[in-house]
Design a protein that fits this description.
Distance between the termini: 96 Å
Radius of gyration: 41 Å
Protein name: DNA-binding protein
Keywords: DNA-binding
Helix content: 40-55%
Pfam family, one: Bro-N
Shape: rod-shaped
Strand content: 5-15%
Order of helices and strands: HEEHHEHEHHHHHHHEE
Strand order of the largest sheet: 1-2-4-3
GO molecular function, one term: DNA binding
Number of helices: 11
Oligomer: single chain
Low-confidence stretches: 1-12
Number of strands: 6
Largest sheet: 4 strands, antiparallel
Organism: Streptomyces fuscichromogenes
Length: 311
């Protein structure tokens, strides 16, 4: 490929249109750029082709861009003894195109966002053919510094393209923010539903316990007031009591009989029985499974509340 020009940029020269705005209006996107000491700009071909909708960047270059408008990054930077820019996305073998190559690719694409820019390019060519030249209008406000370059007004098509792109980006940002708010609200609603389901299941479990009690003793005389001895004797008949379960039963039965409910934290029962909190919880679960006790909510501190089943 041809070596890029190494002619120094003339003193006092400047760009009539900011290169970032120019490329933004041309491609509809912000793409990476290398600006060389002579003022020439080079762009990763893969970035430009992606934004313009070309599926295969190599084929797009071969079909549309002449060789004099494309290079690899090693050749471009090597001509000025510059190192490859930092960052893993700048590969040493990356294909680059200059500004002319970028414009050629824009003219060959069908991306709707590029239409205003392509119309302006067509206007420039038609004006040159008709009048022999094309000039940008000078901006209404000019720099006041001595020797400052003339400021030019951005072409109407380019300015409108940038305005539409920025408006689109603002709309996308707003849609993204709305989507995030909807997702947060959905997560909150889902959590509320899950919590309601848990409470409903707890109420169903309590009601089932009550129905079991009613079915086992639907008729007959009122039950006598339980004693610790009668409760323990009933529990022995009802389930196969292991040593750990019996240890917990001996501790909680007097509390259930005397106070009508058990509100002690598991840690307190574990301390009184010498068992682990996990084992105490397993013993209580077994007593509940065999309808010896059943839960009734919890304390403000989070400890479960159990009451006695009188069968």
């Amino acid at each position: 490929m041809n070596e890029p020009s190494k002619k120094a940029k003339p003193a006092g020269s400047h760009e009539a249109i900011d290169i970032s705005d120019f490329v933004y209006a041309a491609t509809g996107a912000r793409v990476r750029r290398l600006t060389m000491p002579d003022g020439t700009h080079w762009f990763p071909a893969v970035d430009v082709c992606k934004e313009l909708g070309y599926a295969n960047s190599r084929k797009a270059l071969a079909d549309h861009v002449p060789e004099e408008h494309r290079e690899c990054i090693e050749s471009v930077t090597g001509g000025y003894a510059l190192s490859v820019p930092a960052g893993r996305d700048w590969r040493r073998d990356m294909n680059l195109i200059d500004l002319q190559g970028l414009i050629i690719l824009v003219n060959g694409c069908t991306k709707p966002a590029c239409a205003p820019f392509k119309e302006w390019v067509a206007e420039v060519i038609a004006t040159v053919q008709r009048e022999g030249s094309y000039s940008l209008e000078e901006a209404e406000v000019q720099p006041t510094e001595p020797g400052a370059p003339v400021a030019y007004a951005m072409p109407e098509q380019v300015a409108e393209a940038i305005v539409r792109l920025e408006a689109h980006n603002l709309q996308v940002d707003e849609q993204l923010a709305n989507g995030q708010r909807e997702l947060i609200e959905l997560q909150r609603s889902t959590l509320a539903v899950q919590q309601a389901m848990v409470r409903a299941m707890e109420r169903i479990a309590d009601r089932l316990d009550e129905l079991v009690l009613e079915r086992r003793r639907p008729y007959g005389p009122p039950l006598a007031l339980p004693t610790t001895e009668s409760v323990l004797a009933d529990w022995r008949r009802r389930l196969s009591v292991t040593e750990d379960v019996w240890t917990v039963a001996v501790v909680i039965a007097p509390v259930l009989v005397e106070q009508g409910e058990l509100r002690e934290p598991l840690e307190a029962i574990a301390a009184r029985t010498g068992l682990t909190v996990h084992r105490v919880n397993e013993c209580l679960r077994l007593l509940r499974k065999h309808a010896c006790i059943h839960p009734r909510g919890g304390t403000e501190e989070g400890a479960p509340v159990y009451v006695l089943n009188q069968l």
